[in-house]
């Protein structure tokens, strides 16, 4: 038989003691049993109280579940018990008794009992999910469920593997899904034990390919000797569609570019000789041979080119032209190169510098940590290194240009080479009033005119403020300054702010524009050890590398820097 060592047994033992009886022993009267009531019942808790018993100094209690298992037990001088951590819809029995001081004339009361039943948990309302697709992912959203503190979800991927997760928000982004149909189950949950999970609600959705970008450009037919306005569309499954290649609605060339290759693969079926036949208009179809170097795709959403070997035929099968040719489609966001400027200027900077070691070796430290050099100082230092001027500063500081390397890889530079670039970075930080920090170092670009740069380094400098608000500089004149400076062999210090990731996650950055190509795209050195450097449109200034995905198209700033032999800076950016 199971033994139950209850507080009741212990109290009886104490009250009886181990002394012998005598005629002088006091005759004790039993305390009255407590009168118990239960006033609050919840799914996981019960509240009890009892009336004070005259002469009682303590109360003992024990709570038992429906299987006579003791779940609580203790002594108290109070008259209230709140039992928590209980099971829903379960009946519990409370036993309470009173006892008095051992030296008094009262003995332990009879045991009073009361049963009470916890309520059922309140089920959370069911989520009402919906799905939307964008940028290669599917977002499942639903209105917030009252009293829910989280949500769980699960679905099967295209391979039948179960995928599950939890979120505290009312949405979940699913990425990496193959094209096809899926069913996801959403359940509302709560950390409050008074609430039960909702039912798992199923949502069927389809992962379809979504447009990532489109660009209008020029399609040139080799056989016809004509050019047409067409549009290239890129989808998040990696495919491309060249719409209306000969200017007629309803016709297109669909293709992919296999990973690791620049050759295109049309989405139709090739014949036995590797040719793909595609209708380009209501008059012509083309036979494309793309393999073995007979096609190429290069570019991105801003600029590029796709060409392929082709034979053109009319609908009667008559070949147009005497032989094959190469059809071509080009697109670009580049700007028109001003008259008098060179056709193109290769990137001038040979450096790919950054903000960490060894560049930060002479910056201040905070809490034992080295501060970053700052993007304005890093950009300025790279421009000055391009000129390798001056040999020394106005205060006599010698700049060791010969010991500066194009790039610094750990373990591949000497102490002298590290010291040379660190000194330059620190001096550049001084003349732009750098506010140093271990996570970010900042400065106002305009301070390049206010803290002695021109005097200390011997340069002529002009800060042109913001391109747009509040200055509203003329966009054409603004870009002409950039192209003219680059055409003259002078990099410019540029900057902008990106709101691509939201108003609360804006990112301001300064960098160097040091060249342009024949399509009017400029070359940007972002100052991240070469990461993200690219040919980009001035109006966009995108940065895509690693975890960065920004577009510095707002609050663009321009700084023109001349050596004395380059002459004064006299650009006018307002229309005359």
Please characterize this protein's 3D structure.
- The protein has 576 residues and is mainly beta.
- It folds into 4 domains: 7-117, Immunoglobulin-like (Sandwich); 123-207, Immunoglobulins (Immunoglobulin-like, Sandwich), CATH 2.60.40.10; 213-332, Lipocalin; 337-576, Cathepsin B, Chain A (Alpha-Beta Complex), CATH 3.90.70.50.
- Helices cover 10% and strands 39% of the residues.
- It contains 5 helices and 38 strands.
- The strands form 10 sheets. Strands 19, 20, 21, 22, 23, 24, 25, 26, 27 and 28 form a 10-stranded antiparallel β-sheet that branches. A 6-stranded antiparallel β-sheet has the order 31-38-32-33-34-35.
- Helix 2 (375-387) packs across helix 3.
- The protein is flat and about 125 Å long.
- The termini are far apart.
Structure in a nutshell:
One of its GO terms (biological process) is proteolysis. By secondary structure, the chain is mostly beta strands.
Q: Which tags fit this structure?
A:
39% strand, six-stranded antiparallel sheet, mainly beta, ten-stranded antiparallel sheet, Immunoglobulin-like, cysteine-type peptidase activity
What is the typical, i.e. mean, pLDDT? 92
The overall strand count is 38
Instruction: Kindly estimate the percentage of residues that lie in beta strands according to DSSP.
Output: 35-45%
Shape: flat
CATH homology superfamily name of the largest domain? Streptopain (SpeB)
In this structure, how is the largest beta sheet organized? 10 strands, antiparallel
Number of domains: 4
Domain Fibronectin type-III: 30-122
Keywords: Signal
Protein name: Fibronectin type-III domain-containing protein
Organism: Segatella hominis
């Amino acid at each position: 038989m199971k033994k139950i060592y209850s507080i009741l047994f212990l109290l009886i033992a104490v009250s009886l003691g181990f002394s012998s009886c005598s005629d002088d022993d006091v005759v004790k009267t039993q305390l009255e049993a407590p009168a118990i009531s239960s006033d609050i019942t919840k799914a996981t808790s019960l509240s009890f109280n009892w009336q004070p018993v005259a002469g009682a100094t303590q109360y003992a209690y024990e709570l038992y579940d429906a299987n006579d298992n003791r779940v609580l037990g203790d002594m108290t001088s109070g008259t209230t018990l709140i039992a928590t951590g209980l099971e829903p819809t379960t009946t519990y029995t409370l036993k309470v008794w009173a006892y008095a001081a051992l030296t008094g004339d009262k003995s332990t009361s009879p045991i009073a009992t009361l049963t009470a039943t916890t309520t059922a948990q309140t089920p959370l309302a069911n989520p009402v999910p919906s799905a939307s697709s964008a940028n290669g992912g599917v977002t499942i959203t639903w209105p917030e469920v009252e009293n829910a503190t989280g949500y769980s979800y699960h679905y099967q991927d295209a391979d039948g593997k179960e995928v599950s997760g939890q979120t505290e928000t009312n949405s979940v982004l699913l990425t990496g899904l193959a094209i096809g149909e899926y069913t996801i189950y959403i359940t509302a949950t709560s950390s409050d034990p008074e609430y039960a999970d909702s039912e798992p609600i199923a949502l069927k959705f389809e992962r379809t390919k979504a447009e990532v970008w489109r660009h209008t450009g020029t399609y040139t037919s080799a056989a016809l000797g004509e050019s047409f306005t067409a549009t290239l569309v890129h989808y998040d499954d990696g495919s491309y569609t060249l719409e209306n290649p000969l200017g007629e609605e309803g016709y297109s060339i669909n293709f992919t570019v296999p990973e690791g290759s620049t050759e295109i693969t049309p989405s139709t079926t090739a014949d036995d000789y590797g040719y793909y036949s595609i209708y380009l208009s209501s008059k012509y179809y083309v036979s494309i041979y793309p393999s073995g170097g007979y096609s190429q795709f290069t570019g991105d959403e801003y600029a590029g080119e796709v060409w392929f070997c082709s034979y053109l035929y009319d609908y009667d099968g008559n070949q147009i032209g005497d032989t094959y040719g190469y059809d071509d489609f080009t697109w670009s966001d580049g700007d028109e190169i001003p008259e008098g400027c060179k056709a193109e200027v290769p990137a001038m900077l040979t450096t790919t510098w950054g903000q960490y070691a060894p560049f930060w070796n002479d910056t201040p430290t905070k809490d034992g940590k080295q501060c970053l050099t700052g993007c304005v100082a890093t950009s300025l230092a790279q421009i000055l290194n391009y000129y390798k001027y001056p040999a020394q500063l106005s205060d006599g500081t010698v700049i060791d240009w010969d010991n500066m390397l194009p790039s610094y890889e750990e373990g591949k530079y000497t102490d002298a080479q590290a010291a040379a670039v660190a000194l330059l970075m620190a001096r550049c930080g001084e003349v732009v009033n750098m506010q140093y920090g271990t996570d970010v170092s900042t400065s106002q670009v305009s301070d390049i005119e206010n803290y002695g740069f021109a005097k200390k380094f011997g340069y002529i400098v002009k800060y042109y403020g913001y391109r747009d608000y509040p200055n509203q500089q003329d966009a054409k004149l603004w870009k002409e300054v950039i192209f003219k400076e680059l055409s003259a062999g002078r990099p410019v210090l540029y900057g902008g702010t990106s709101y691509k990731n939201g108003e609360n996650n804006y990112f301001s950055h300064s960098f160097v524009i040091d060249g342009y190509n024949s399509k009017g795209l400029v070359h940007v050195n972002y100052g991240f050890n070469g990461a993200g450097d690219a040919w980009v449109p001035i109006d966009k200034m995108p940065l895509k590398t690693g975890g960065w995905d920004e577009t510095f198209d707002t609050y663009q700033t321009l700084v023109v820097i001349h050596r004395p032999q380059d002459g004064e800076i006299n650009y006018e950016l307002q229309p005359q």
